[in-house]
Design brief:
With 280 residues, this protein is an alpha/beta fold. It is 36% helix and 23% strand. The radius of gyration is 19 Å and the shape is globular. The N terminus is likely disordered. InterPro entries: AAA+_ATPase (IPR003593), ABC_transp_ATP-bind (IPR050319), ABC_transporter-like_ATP-bd (IPR003439), ABC_transporter-like_CS (IPR017871), P-loop_NTPase (IPR027417).
Length: 280
């Protein structure tokens, strides 16, 4: 076995992305997505695109179709109509093996930081699982990569031997993030990733995500019911209501002049806390 087979691939940083055209810049495209379940239409004609190295925010109340749309974008559900293209490849018609290969480049961080981790496994086993499943490096290289990932998310390398029950909610979410970025994915879907964490820890996790994005050139799809959190993370925001994207705009435009009444309602619901700059 040669040296290349022993090594975990190096991360693809933003400045190393190939191509400079607008088409190369778009990582994920949904076109006319529809998802019907018996008696209901959960997603109704959604189109969106996510550019490389950015954060695209998707916001809406519980039950609006965000989770179904996320599953469609990840290829976990087959749409009733419409298409999803990721890295230029349409997901809709792919077989299991091809889809699995592409999924190495798209990872997800879920809402429940404790429940999303296997309590029977150690932190090192949890973070190292994607590496093992996709055959990235040998056992020695994977252990080294796990240690590197723990440091990247702000946890001591000694935590590799701990189990989820020994960690706080915020620490568990750091483990989930480490697992998600283990394979240097192009896209990380953050599905209500901070909604189950206390406010102080939320800020730490959000700042960690922003730091990792800058360092590793990650692309985020940030899904949340909390418009204040989405505003902090995403320069481009889509508002979802009753299965549709009712408004999409750059962050500054959305907050300065929302077109839809539903968007105005979400903005008005954000708690008003005086900023530090406004304090005399």
């Amino acid at each position: 076995m040669n040296e290349r087979e022993h090594r975990v691939p190096e991360p693809r940083r933003r400045f190393e992305e190939p191509g400079t055209s607008a088409e190369d810049d778009v990582l994920l495209v949904a076109d006319g997505l529809v998802m019907d379940f018996p008696g209901t239409r959960a997603v109704d004609g959604v189109s969106l695109s996510v550019r490389r190295g950015t954060t695209f925010g998707l916001v809406g109340e519980s039950g609006c179709g965000k989770s179904t749309l996320t599953s469609l974008l990840l290829g976990l559900l087959r749409p009733t109509a419409g298409t999803v293209r990721f890295r230029g490849t349409e997901l809709t018609g792919l077989g299991g093996r091809e889809l699995r290969r592409l999924r190495a480049h798209m990872q997800v961080v879920l809402q429940d930081p404790v429940g999303s981790l296997n309590r029977r496994k150690t932190v090192g086993q949890i973070i190292g699982l994607p590496l093992a499943v996709h055959g990235a490096g040998d056992a020695t290289a994977r252990r080294a990569r796990v240690a590197e990932l723990l440091e990247l998310v702000g946890l001591p390398t000694s935590y590799a031997s701990r189990r989820p029950a020994e960690l706080s909610g915020g620490q568990c979410q750091r483990v989930s993030i480490a697992r998600a970025i283990a394979l240097h994915p192009d896209l990380v879907v953050l599905d209500e990733a901070v909604s189950a964490i206390d406010v102080a820890t939320q800020a730490q996790i959000l700042n960690l995500l922003r730091s990792l994005q800058t360092e590793l050139g990650l692309t985020y799809l940030f899904v949340s019911h909390d418009l204040a959190v989405v505003r902090y993370m995403a320069p481009e925001i889509a508002v979802m209501h009753r299965g549709r994207i009712v408004e999409q705009a750059p962050r500054e435009d959305l907050f300065a002049s929302p077109r839809e009444e539903y968007t105005r309602t979400l903005i008005e619901a954000i708690p008003r806390v005086p900023s530090r700059e406004a304090t005399p």
